[in-house]
Amino acid sequence: QLQLVESGGRLVHSGGSLRLSCAASGFSLADYAITWFRQAPGNEREGVSCISGSDGRTNYADSVKGRFTISRDNAKNTVFLRMNSLIVEDTAVYYCAAAQSCDYPEGGMDYWGKGTLVTVSS
Fold it and tell me: What's the rounded Cα separation, in Å, for the pair 109 and 42?
């Protein structure tokens, strides 16, 4: 079965850190660009960060640049999102998704995880 499973979300105080994981089964993450999305209550889903499968290039939304770091461990078939200096506005369900390229829009993802909840308290 081809699937992505996110983990690592929990309640954390403002200023704290978390590391989210996105583990794949049934396919190799190394063959895909992996994007982290998030959706806060009442908001549309937005792209947070992407890491290319071919060369490891990364990009970040302006709102998380300098605070979040995306990385991948192909041996573990897992992509990580390190989140530092968390703020209340980072509260959301975080999803990972796989596509052929970081240039693909949200509608072009091949696989989606079910999400993990991150709650940042003030």
Answer: 22
∠ at Cα 22 (19, 26), nearest 5°? Answer: 160
Both structure tokens of 24: 């794949």
Q: In which element (H, E) is residue 38 found?
A: strand 33-39
How do strand 116-121 and strand 11-13 relate by DSSP bridges?
A: parallel
pLDDT tens digits, the chain, 122 residues: what are they? 889 999 999 999 999 999 999 999 999 999 999 999 999 999 999 999 999 997 899 999 999 999 999 999 999 999 999 999 999 999 999 999 999 999 999 999 999 999 999 999 99
Quickly tell me which residue has 């063959």 as its tokens: 31
Cα dihedral 85, 14, 94, 45 sign: negative
